[in-house]
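Hey L., structure's done. Input below.
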Amino acid sequence: MTAKVEKLMGNMEKKVDKEMWKEMEVKKQSVRFDFVTNSIVQGISSINSKAFHMNVLGCKDLKFISVKISAPGNSVNTDGIHIGESTGISVAHSIIGTGDDCISIGPGNNDINIFDVQCGPGHGISIKRPKQIYK
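Output:
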């Protein structure tokens, strides 16, 4: 695995609440990118993760280039890349095939660019709504 990371810590304008952290702790990810700024992740692969392959939280100006992610088509909750509370995220020239979402975009994101990404099997690219509380 090779990755070029120019800066590990970044500034985050939004605060992540306790519920979000609790939810992220429950779901195990193969690779987490938390609060990374102005960086490139290039040429890495993730195979047969038990849950999310890559999780992006609170990042700014992070690019994924030539990423390969694979899991069997019947594997549940194996999102390729999950993006939440981030700005300026790009996924390009990649192959993502899982049993769940190729790329899932959670709430609180801005300026997400996805191009030349081959998805499948799985659900493709999904945009998640914030959880609603019903009384």
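DSSP finds one helix and eleven strands in the chain. Confidence is low (pLDDT under 50) at residues 1-16.

-- N.
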